Amino acid sequence: MKKLMDAYYTKTGKAVSSVRFLADGDRLAPTDTAASLGLEDNEGIDAMVEQVGG
After folding, report:
1. Fewest C-beta in 10 Å: which of 21, 24, 33, 42?
2. Which CB contacts under 8 angstroms, 24+ apart, belong to 3-11?
3. Strand pairing category for 46-49 and 26-27
4. What does the pLDDT look like over 16-37, one tens digit per residue?
């Protein structure tokens, strides 16, 4: 997942520390793979950006 995460940071300009990636509600680590997570075709990964304030 590291390659995917790095591409997201580059494209959005978000800081690494401000984004959380989730699959089925579980946080992803850069060392995870689609196979280790049990992801199948057309399953999504969510990117949650930290928001401070209201």
Report:
1. 42
2. 4/45, 5/30, 8/47
3. unpaired
4. 999 999 999 999 999 999 999 9
